[in-house]
Amino acid sequence: MSHSSSSASPSEPWSVPPVAQTRPVIQQGNPVLRQTARSISSQCLTAESLTAEPLTGSTTALQTLIDELIATAIATNGVGIAAPQIAASERLFIIASRPNERYPNAPKMEPTAMINPVLIDRSDQEELGWEGCLSVPDRRGQVSRAKDIRVEYLDRWGALQRSQFSGFVARIFQHELDHLNGILFVDHVAPADLVSEVEYLQRLSRESHPSN
Ligand SMILES: [Zn+2]
């Protein structure tokens, strides 16, 4: 995984503010998951840390939404979560990759909010990898994704960020971007190839201990 930014921005907080609430994650079948999410207006992106102006109501709401998404991702062992998954149909997601029970081999990356994210370029090379989704419990499947991507997004303070991601983090970005377009990972997997969480964990264990 590589992560570089060309524009300076205030560093984002590592930890979730204690006031952030977790929110219920809506489940497959809820029509919000099938909607194309709205772009977030620049009026919501007053760079509070760069100006002395008081927060507007919408800016406060956006910051709260971001903190709630981070808190929800951490509480549910998600490595990413998109705003539509908590019924907010906005173009915003969090990447919060770190090893946990659901993804034992995930790389560690500071929770990062990505607003109005865009896929700028993608490698022709794709790779298959396991995915799951907080909105599709007890289902896992292997999805082919571009191995390397170049992206742009606005960070939580409204600063334009350009980044490159590879491998698992590129996979998370593509999975979450799908959510903003009403697409779920199961749409990319033949139904007969979906497996349960228990079966997925057993396969992972066999892959990392092939002699067992
Ligand atoms: Zn998902």
Q: Could you please describe the fold and organization of this structure?
A:
- This protein has a single domain (31-208), classed as Peptide deformylase (Peptide Deformylase, Alpha-Beta Complex), CATH 3.90.45.10.
- Helices cover 21% and strands 24% of the residues.
- The protein has helices at residues 57-75, 167-180, 197-208; strands at residues 80-82, 92-95, 112-122, 126-133, 136-146, 148-154, 160-166.
- The strands form two sheets. The protein has a five-stranded antiparallel beta sheet, with helices on both faces. Strands 4-5 form a two-stranded antiparallel sheet.
- β4 and β5 (136-146) form a beta hairpin.
- The model is unreliable at 1-13 and 49-55 (pLDDT under 50).
- Zinc ion binds at residues 133-135, 175, 179.
Descriptive key words:
212 residues; alpha+beta; five-stranded antiparallel β-sheet; two-stranded antiparallel sheet; 7 strands; disordered N terminus; binds zinc ion
Topology, please?
Elements: H1 57-75, E1 80-82, E2 92-95, E3 112-122, E4 126-133, E5 136-146, E6 148-154, E7 160-166, H2 167-180, H3 197-208
Bound molecules: zinc ion.
Record the strand order, biggest sheet.
1-2-3-6-7
Helix-and-strand structural type:
alpha+beta
Strand runs, count: 7
For the record, the CATH architecture stands as Alpha-Beta Complex
- CATH top level is Alpha Beta
- Percent helix, as a range, is 10-25%
Describe the biggest sheet? 5 strands, antiparallel
Total domain count: 1
Q: How many helical elements? A: 3
